[in-house]
Structures are given as C-alpha cells and as structure tokens.
Design goal:
- By secondary structure, the protein is α+β, with helices and mostly antiparallel strands.
- The protein is 36% helix and 15% strand.
- The strands form three sheets. The protein has an eight-stranded antiparallel β-sheet with strand order 15-14-13-12-9-11-10-16. Strands 3-4-6-7-8 form a five-stranded antiparallel β-sheet.
- A hairpin with a 7-residue loop joins β7 and β8.
- The longest helix is centred in the first third of the chain and has 18 residues.
- About 1% of the residues have low confidence.
Length: 630
C-alpha cells in the first residue's frame, strides 16, 4: 500500500478534534480535552528504536511515530494505549502460543495459518495499556510496500487474532470504531458524521434508481462508522443478493410503516427451524426488545410456520403480487416472475429506511422465486418514483416438457424415481375429490421434496392397511393446462398390485399416469420399470409397463408411444427414459414445472392407494426401518 497521499497529521488531528467520551464513559461536559497523542518522535529517536530492535520499522508505522509518538486508541474492549518509539519491543511469545498454533497446522496448512503460527515469536509489541490484549506487528507477514501485518489478540476471548494488512489499516479501522462507539450520542456531530450521513442518503437514492452496485460501497463505509440507517439499507441489498450475513433489520420491526415487510422476514429463520438460540421465546423476546408487540410477532411467526402468510402490500404493486401468487401457487413460476418484474417500478417505499420489496422473500409461494439472479434484477430495476434504465431480464427457469426429469440435480436421483397423474379439463383444486383419500384437502403451500418424506407410513396410521400405497402428492397446473399430482422421489415399488388412478382422474377428459421406478442394486434381479396408462371419461384407453426387457401392454397404444420403439435393449436406461418423456410431451402435451417441484412451494394432498387389496392367493411384503439413537 502507498502512503504518499496519506497525511498522518491531518488524520490524527481530525481524530483528536472529534473526540468525545463514549456513552458509557464519564462525561465532564466536554470541559477537559483528552490528549490522544503526543508530539511526534524525531528521526533520531525513531532510528535509535530501529537500532535497538535490529529492524527498520514498516513505512506507515514510521510515519505515524513521526506525527505522534504513541496514541490513545480507546477500544471499548481490548487495546487502550499504543506506546511510542521508546516503548515498543519484541513480543517473544511469553505465553507459549507458538506450539498451540503449530500443532493445529496439519499436513497441508494454508499460508495464512503458517504465518500466524510463526507470528508470536517474530512480532513487535506496540501496546502499553490493554485488557489482556496485544497489538503485534509481524515482520514475517509483509507486502510489496514493506508494510507489516498487524494482529490484535484478545487474550480473554479465546478467538483467533484479528489481522490488519498494515498499521495504517489498523488505525483507520480504530478510527471508524471510535465513530461507531459514539454514533448513538445525539451531540456527536462533526464533518465526518455529516459526510457519512450524506453518503447514506446518496446510496439510498442510487439504490432506488437501480444503481445498487454504486450504493454498496457507500453503505459499507457508512456502516463501519455506525451511521444510522446504513446497516438496514445495506442488509436489504445483501439479502436480495443472497450474499450472507445476519440480515438484522433492527428497530424497523416496531415501525408500522415497515412492519408488514420486515417482521415476516425476521421470522423466516425461527419459522424454518434454523433458530437455535433459545427457541421461540428467545426470538419473541428479541423482537419485543426492538419494540415489536409480542402478539403481532406471535401471529406472524405462526402464519410463517404453517405456510399461510401472505405478502400483501398496497396499491398496484400489491395487485401484481396477488396475481403472481395465483400463478406461482399452481407452479407457473416463470409467468409469476414476469408479472412481478413488470410491476417492480410501481413499488413504493413506505419510508426512507426501505429501498426494496424485501417482504417478498417471506411469502411462502413467492419467496422461493427470488433467486440470486432475480434478486439482482429487483435491485437493478428503478422503483419508488425513481428513473433509470431497466436491467436485462433474467431468462425463464423452467424448460419445456419432461426431459428435465432425467437430470440428476432436478430429479433427486440416484435416490429414487417419480410418479405423476395428469388430468385434462379440470383445475388442480378438483384432484383431491377425484383421486384423494376420504376427506382429502389441499394443504398450504409446502416444499414438495419434504412433504412425502414427512408423511406417516401405513403402520403409523389407524385404519390404513399395510398393503396400501397412499402418496402425498404436490399439486399444480402445467403450461398446457393439465392439472397434475406429482410424487417424487417415490420410494414405492411398482408391484403387481398396482392400480392406476388414471380412470378416476379422467371424469372430465383424459388422464395420464406415469410411474418410473429405477433399477435397484442389481439390475438383473430388480431392473428399472416404467409405467404409462391413459384413460378418458372413466375408462382406461391403453397402458404399458416395461420392466427390463419385459413389456406388458393393453389397449390400442399410439405408434408414437409404442414401448417397443421407445425402450430398446441396446440403449441405456437414461436414454430410454429420455425418449419416452420426449414422446409424452410431443404426443400428449405433458410437462411439469421444474422450479416449482424442485425449489418452490406447492399445495399437497394424500391420494387413495396406488395398489389394490391382495386377492386370494396373492401376497405382499411390507417392511420399515426403525432407527434407535444411542
């Protein structure tokens, strides 16, 4: 790093001029000026220190000593005072840290870990007053400009030291920390606070104009100074960019302008089961400490947990959200996103602390649609009355047809197969009445990948026979207008007792059933199976089941779906599957929404049994595993 344009006298003078006590320190009303530094050391004193130490000091530390021979850093917990040229000396690892760090290096350690392990013996100790903390300059960790890395080790914390690339970087961080510690003081106003507050407002407008990349560094710097609103604005950008972090929105949960957007977002982690800090009571207590009414927080958490929460903003944006949800509710996620994309400019910020429709993320149906790419599209779209160029639209995510089922990432393979019912001429909401168990109703939108796994097994349900194969299916509508009920991955066996639900689903038109069962450990003993059955107005038209090289067929099968043509012995299992799925799309117009089934949320219900009762002389096998924890 270059120090040519860095003026230590100006920097330290500004720090001294702005100094006031922290809120937790005794305040004499500003009558006493606390000297943070001392007169600078002359060149002879610095040279004498270097001769005593046997090393030339790094550039930024040398220039600091020339400007101030020591400094009152005033960390809230850690280092308090940096010594001058006559005070510094080698650390020499008096507490035996080196072997502790060396023993954890392993066979192929990273370079930074090797440097840290050797730092304790090499480092120059700078602090003269601290709370069991040490400021250590390491000549073994240097850069092309001759700067030494500075490590701050808090002996009471048990944590790894904090590393700064140079002494100057450390002092600049301490200056920002000095500001952040005093940001809550109403009388702490100076040129620096005014500049950073102006940056926050500039970043807010840039973000609303879609220029979020320009807003990010302004907010990051302002946050390091502890400036109001900087953290909540920055967290909105990071949340939509899925760039990690806590996404803490502070006291916005108590402001009625922001509560509908922010409180559900805050409830996402406890509602998903990812909250580990004391359970619901702890989270509710945190919300209460920020000013949110407990009753409101409890209600939001309850609806988030049971999947009934609805993001319902006002105005034209709210109407677009409702329209998009109705599309996404049945699996048309690309169409839903296009509605939201077109309406984004109509979103209105309810106040100056909100710069994006962050509440969209908490909606159980619409939230999963906001991928990192779409999050960037939201942020790049001018909104709330601001203008600017629109971003390039993110491409649709759902491929046509069914071929995507052969993709391992999408089909959860090699775990298991899938099965599906398509019904023509009806809405998805009618499927439970046609093929559902008695009293079946659609659930709230849920993760279709988890619904089947969590469903009780036959031996766990009263009144359900062990031979029954009731499936928990995800429900939606295809792009071509077919209602579908999908079960995947299916852990069931396509047995001789199979009873196709196609006739029951076909009362208003055609219905199609597909069941793919992959081969087990030994293909010769248990080869892959594929079933297709097509019915219309309650009667089966044709069907086939292929198991290995054996084919069972019934009815007049169209030539395009002839299993002898689709399943060739010389082709691989995947090639045959892909060929039949493409034929089903071409011949019958079948498709499935990949995004909704693999990453979205859909309603579910429990079907009637996919197997019939065994007849006289027929047997069946049923097995389940019980896992006992030690």
């Amino acid at each position: 790093m270059s120090n040519e344009t860095f003026n230590w006298h100006e920097f330290l003078g500004r720090w001294q001029k702005e100094w006031v006590p922290r809120a937790d320190e005794d305040d004499d009303g500003g009558q006493t000026v606390v000297p943070l530094g001392r007169p600078g050391a002359d060149e002879a004193a610095i040279a004498a220190a270097e001769e005593r130490l046997g090393r030339r000091l790094p550039p930024s530390y040398r220039e600091f000593l020339a400007a101030s021979d020591g400094w009152h850093v005033d960390q809230a917990a850690g280092v308090y005072q940096l010594g001058g040229a006559a005070d510094i000396d080698w650390f020499r690892d008096p507490y035996g840290m080196t072997p502790l760090y060396e023993q954890n290096l392993g066979d192929d350690p990273r370079q930074e870990h090797v440097l840290l392990a050797g730092m304790w013996q090499r480092a120059l100790r700078l602090e003269t007053d601290s709370d069991m903390s040490y400021a250590l300059l390491d000549p073994g960790d240097s850069d092309q400009d001759g700067e030494w890395a500075l490590y701050v080790y808090k002996g009471w914390s048990g944590e790894f030291p904090d590393r700064y690339p140079s002494f100057r970087a450390y002092m600049e961080a301490m200056y920002r920390g000095f500001h952040a510690d005093r940001a809550e003081r109403p009388d702490f106003v100076n040129a620096t606070t005014r500049l950073q507050d102006a940056h926050v407002e500039e970043a807010r407008l840039l973000a609303l104009r879609g220029r979020y990349e320009e807003a990010l560094p302004l907010l990051e710097e302002a946050r390091s100074f502890g400036r109001p609103r900087s953290a909540v604005l920055l967290n909105q950008l990071r949340h939509l960019l899925a760039s990690g972090g806590s996404w803490d929105y502070g006291n916005l949960v108590a402001d009625p302008r922001y509560l509908p957007e922010i409180l559900p977002v805050e409830a996402m982690r406890p509602a998903s089961g990812k909250w580990r800090l004391g359970g619901d009571d702890h989270w509710l207590g945190m919300m209460a400490a920020r000013g949110a009414a407990r009753e409101a927080a409890e209600a939001v958490l309850r609806t988030m947990r049971d999947g009934t929460h609805r993001y319902a903003p006002p105005g034209p944006w709210g109407r677009a959200v409702a329209e998009a949800r109705e599309s996404a509710r049945w699996g048309a996620t690309d169409a839903a996103w296009r509605v939201l994309r077109d309406a984004l400019p109509l979103w209105e910020a309810p106040g100056p602390s909100l710069i994006a429709p962050i509440g969209l993320l908490a909606d159980p149906v619409l939230g999963p649609l906001v991928t990192p790419e779409r999050g960037r599209e939201i942020l790049a779209t001018p909104r709330s009355g601001q203008t600017g160029p629109a971003p390039e639209p993110v491409p649709d995510l759902d491929p046509p047809g069914l071929a995507w089922l052969t993709e391992p990432a999408a089909n959860w393979r090699p775990l298991d197969g899938y099965r599906c019912v398509w019904a023509e001429g009806i809405g998805p909401a009618r499927l439970p009445a046609l093929i559902g168990e008695e009293g079946a109703e659609l659930s709230a939108p849920t993760d279709p990948r988890k619904a089947s796994r969590r469903a009780p097994k036959p031996h766990e349900r009263e009144g359900v026979e062990l031979w029954e194969d009731r499936a928990v299916v995800a429900v939606g509508r295809t792009a071509e207008g077919w209602a579908f009920a999908f079960d995947g991955p299916s852990h069931r066996h396509l047995s001789k007792l199979f009873l196709s639900p196609a006739p029951a689903a076909s009362l208003s038109g055609r219905a199609v059933v597909v069941w793919r069962e992959p081969g087990r450990s030994s293909p010769d003993e248990h080869p892959a199976a594929f079933h297709l059955s097509v019915a219309e107005r309650g009667k089966e038209l044709y069907a086939f089941t292929v198991r290995g090289t054996e084919i069972e067929r019934s009815g007049r099968i169209p030539e395009a779906l002839d299993p002898a043509r689709l399943f060739r012995p010389e082709d691989s299992e995947t090639d045959c599957e892909l060929r039949v799925l493409e034929a089903l799309h071409t011949e019958l117009g079948l498709s499935l929404p990949r995004f909704a089934l693999t990453r979205g949320r859909l309603p579910t219900f429990t079907t009637r049994s996919w197997t019939r009762a065994p007849r006289a002389g027929e047997g069946f096998a049923y097995a389940y595993l019980v896992r006992h924890r030690p």
